[in-house]
Design a protein that fits this description.
Layout (H helix, E strand, L loop, with lengths): L9 H8 L3 H11 L9 E3 L18 E5 L4 E7 L6 H14 L2 H4 L8 E7 L14 E7 L7 E11 L12 H12 L9 H5 L1 H8 L8 H46 L4 H8 L3 H14 L1
Parallel strand pairs: 3-4, 4-6
Antiparallel strand pairs: 1-2, 2-3, 5-6
Length: 288
Amino acid sequence: MAHFLDPKHDLTFKRVFGEHKHLCISLINSMLPLENPVANIEYQSGELIPPLDILRNTIVDVRCTDTDGRQFLVEMQLFWYESFKQRVVLNASKAYVMQLEKAQKLKLLQPVYSLNFVNEIFEKSEKMENVYFHHYKIVNIEYTEKRIDDLEFVFLELPKFIPQNRAEKKLHELWLRFLTEINENTEKIPQELLDNELTREAAGYVEKAAYTKKELAQYDKWKMDLLSAQSMLYDAEVKGEAKGEANEKTKTVINSDRAGLPVETISIITGLSSGEIKKILERNKKSR
């Protein structure tokens, strides 16, 4: 029987960082390269984006404002899809614009920081094989020291994270270990997390015994919904790949026929039967 719940899931992530300000402050300060660390925050409620069907997944997990007026949007994303970055930009931009309701003057607008933990690898190039921390700013392309400070975005690929035990980044690593090493199969919390008062406290909030039967049912339902969404996304990707491959083969058949290649040769090139090739060529003639 599981003793702990996964802190990456919606219910637990919001319990730890959306209900305990000092833990959220510690997470933000340890992850974002801020010149002036956050000293205090107030949580913000309400949706940034209207509940339209196309934007049904745009709710931010934790949104808060510090005493300087800076806004922080903190999200946990368990699986990656290509439009996620656009969603993040949309939420941050909306948070920035909404300040006008209070600020009245553009010069009074404060920066918005978007901190995003992603439980999948999305940067798959060889040169970024071991890079898990991605920091985006609005910068001058030629003179990168020139920048606009109003919007910043940080994405962390959790599966790439490997602890380095760096003293100068102790909390950074401890919080990432908290998110990556605790799950429903955990029997004992790593001692390094118990030795720190903040991560030790956070570990207490993901103990299964700390949740009611109704909350645990909600947790289980959320897991099932997530699995369904992942399955649908995978099926869509497979269908998209299959369709793309079919389109490529169709182009190859048509171009090979135009080049005067016989059907037998085209069959060897594409792996299609002579009957399939003839159907493709007939459809192409009718469409012209």
